[in-house]
Write a structure and sequence with these properties.
single chain
C-alpha cells in the first residue's frame, strides 16, 4: 500500500494548474494597460499617416529625383567605359541635363502654351467646319443624336472661366498651384543633380548598414537593382522621346495646328509601359478628326506602323540590357501604380517590378533551391 503522505494532494505543488476557458484566454491579463497601449498605437499610426500625407509633395519630388538620377547613371557609366573619369562624366551628364531642363523651361513650354492658346481660340471655327462636313452629318444622322449640342455643352463646361475657378478653388489657389509646380520642378532638378553626383556614396552608405559578412553579397545585389532600374528608366525616357519626335512629324504632315502640344502629350503618355502608345493612338486619332477624316486616317495608319516598328525593332535594342519583365506583370504593375499614385505610379511600375524580380531570382529562388530536406525529416 502506498503511503498517503507521499501521494500528491489536491492543490499541491504537483497538481496541474486549472485550465482557463477559451473566453478567458481572449481577455488580456491587464486590460487597462493593453487598451491604453492599443490606443497610443492607433494615435501614432494616424499621426504618421497625416505626416506622410502632408509631406507627399516633398516625398514625390525626392522619389522622382532619385529615379531620374538612376536613369542618368547609365550615361555616366557609358562615359566611364570610354575612358572618362567618373567625376568628369558626372559633370558632363549634369550640365547636359541642366541645359535640357532650361531648354524645356524657356523654349518648349512657352511654345506649347502659345499653341494651346491658339488652339482654344481657333476651336469654335474648327468645330463649325467639322459640323458642316459630309461625314459628320452622316454620322449624326446614323446615331440620331444632335452631336453639336453635346460638343457645345462639353466645351462650355471645359473652357468656362467659372468652371475653371470652381475646379481650381479660386484665383489664389490656382496661383499657389502654379508656384508650387514651378518650385517642385526646380526641386526635382536640384535633387536629380545631387543624387547623380552622390549615387556611389549613397550605395556605400546603405551597404554599411548591413552586417559585414553579408555586405559583399548585398552590394552586388544593390548594384544589379540600381543598374536595372537605371536601364529601365533611361530606356523608357529614350523610347518616349522617339515617340514624341514621330508624333511631331506626323502632326506636321497632317497639318495640325498644335504639333508641339501633341508631341509633349505623347512623351508623357507613352512613358506608361505597353499601354501608353495604344492610349495615345486613340487620343491622336480623335484629335486629328478635328482636321479631317483623312488626317485622322493618316495619323492612325502612320502611328500604328511606328508602334509595330517600336515593338519589334526599337524597344529590343533600347531595353536590351534591362531586366526582362513579363508583359502581364508590366500591365498589372502599371494598373496598380496608377491606382495608388496616379501617373507617377504608372511610370515607376516597371522599375519596381524589375527590382522585385531581381530579388526573387537572386535571393529567394537560390535559397529555396538550397533546401533539399524537409524541416521535420529525421
Amino acid at each position: 500500500m502506498s503511503d498517503p503522505d507521499l501521494e500528491p494532494q489536491p492543490g499541491g505543488a504537483d497538481a496541474p494548474s486549472p485550465r482557463r476557458s477559451p473566453l478567458l484566454r481572449l481577455v488580456p491579463a491587464h486590460p487597462l494597460v493593453s487598451g491604453f497601449t492599443v490606443a497610443v498605437g492607433v494615435i501614432l499610426a494616424i499621426a504618421l499617416s497625416a505626416t506622410v500625407a502632408s509631406l507627399s509633395t516633398v516625398l514625390i519630388s525626392v522619389f522622382l529625383g532619385l529615379f531620374l538620377a538612376l536613369g542618368l547613371d547609365p550615361a555616366v557609366r557609358a562615359l566611364e567605359r570610354r575612358g572618362i573619369r567618373r567625376g568628369l562624366g558626372i559633370a558632363i551628364v549634369a550640365v547636359s541635363f541642366l541645359v535640357l531642363m532650361l531648354v524645356i523651361l524657356l523654349v518648349v513650354i512657352p511654345a506649347t502654351v502659345r499653341q494651346f492658346i491658339a488652339a482654344l481660340e481657333a476651336a469654335p471655327e474648327a468645330i463649325a467646319a467639322l459640323q458642316t462636313s459630309d461625314w459628320y452629318v452622316s454620322l449624326e444622322a446614323s446615331l440620331g443624336v444632335d452631336l453639336g449640342v453635346v460638343i457645345a455643352e462639353a466645351l462650355k463646361s471645359i473652357t468656362s472661366i467659372s468652371s475653371f475657378l470652381a475646379i481650381s478653388g479660386g484665383v489664389l489657389r490656382a496661383g499657389f498651384g502654379i508656384v508650387g509646380a514651378i518650385s517642385s520642378f526646380v526641386m526635382v532638378v536640384v535633387l536629380t543633380l545631387y543624387f547623380v553626383s552622390s549615387l556611389s556614396a549613397m550605395k556605400q552608405t546603405v551597404a554599411n548598414l548591413v552586417p559585414a559578412y553579408q555586405r559583399k553579397r548585398f552590394s552586388e545585389l544593390l548594384e544589379q537593382i540600381t543598374g536595372s532600374v537605371g536601364s529601365v528608366v533611361a530606356g523608357g525616357i529614350t523610347l518616349s522621346t522617339f515617340n514624341a519626335l514621330v508624333v511631331l512629324v506626323i502632326q506636321l504632315i497632317i497639318g495640325s495646328s498644335v504639333p508641339a502640344v501633341m508631341a509633349i502629350a505623347a512623351f508623357f503618355i507613352t512613358l506608361i509601359p505597353l499601354l501608353g502608345s495604344l492610349i495615345f493612338l486613340l487620343i491622336g486619332t480623335v484629335g486629328a478628326l478635328l482636321i479631317s477624316p483623312w488626317a485622322a486616317l493618316t495619323f492612325l495608319v502612320l502611328y500604328f506602323i511606328y508602334i509595330q516598328v517600336e515593338a519589334y525593332f526599337v524597344t529590343p535594342r533600347v531595353m536590351g540590357k534591362a531586366v526582362a519583365v513579363p508583359a502581364v506583370l508590366v500591365i498589372i504593375g502599371a494598373m496598380v501604380g496608377a491606382t495608388l499614385m496616379g501617373l507617377l505610379g504608372a511610370l515607376v511600375a516597371i522599375p519596381i517590378t524589375a527590382s522585385i524580380l531581381i530579388i526573387i531570382r537572386q535571393v529567394v529562388i537560390p535559397r529555396q533551391n538550397s533546401i533539399t530536406i524537409a524541416p521535420d525529416a529525421d
